[in-house]
Amino acid sequence: MKFVIVFVALFGLALAAEEATVVRSDSNVGPEGYQFAVETSDGKAHSEEGQLKNIGSEDEAIVVKGQYSYVGDDGVTYSVSYIADENGFQPQGAHLPVAPVV
């Protein structure tokens, strides 16, 4: 019975959600890196590029740089840029809290 209630609730949410369409999509994937960009009709955008670093060494890693934006429920467009590398995921955005410098 619980499954039916959850299913009906999720189905209702899916029907209420506005369907977005992709208005732009570009990508380029190679052996040593990639890049892509996507924009949708609901104001979302995401672009990213990744490159292999220290190819063939013990320290080989991928470095990813990107950004995404979306329109919040309050009508404001929020943007986040980020780097993900050996130091982890490092997002930056005007609306994100910043850790104090110790």
Mean pLDDT, to the nearest integer, reads: 84
**SSE ordering:** HEEEEEE
Number of helices: 1
**Approximate shape:** flat
Rg, alpha carbons: 19 Å
- Give unreliable regions as ranges: none
**Assembly form of the protein:** single chain
Structural class: mainly beta
What is the number of beta strands?
6
The largest beta-sheet arranges its strands as 1-2-3-4-5-6
Q: How would you portray this structure in words?
A:
The chain is mainly beta. Helix content is 15%, strand content 50%. The protein has one helix and six strands; from the N terminus they run H-E-E-E-E-E-E. The chain has one helix at residues 2-16, and strands spanning 22-30, 33-40, 45-53, 61-71, 77-85, 88-92. A six-stranded antiparallel sheet has the order 1-2-3-4-5-6, with no helix packed on it. Strand 5 (77-85) and strand 6 (88-92) form a beta hairpin. It is flat and about 45 Å long. It starts with a helix and ends in a 10-residue tail after the last strand. The mean pLDDT is 84.
Summarize, please.
The chain contains one helix and six strands; from the N terminus they run αββββββ.
Question: Which helices and strands appear, and what pairs or packs with what?
Answer:
Blueprint: H1 2-16, E1 22-30, E2 33-40, E3 45-53, E4 61-71, E5 77-85, E6 88-92
Which key features would you list for this structure?
102 residues; mainly beta; 6-stranded antiparallel sheet; flat
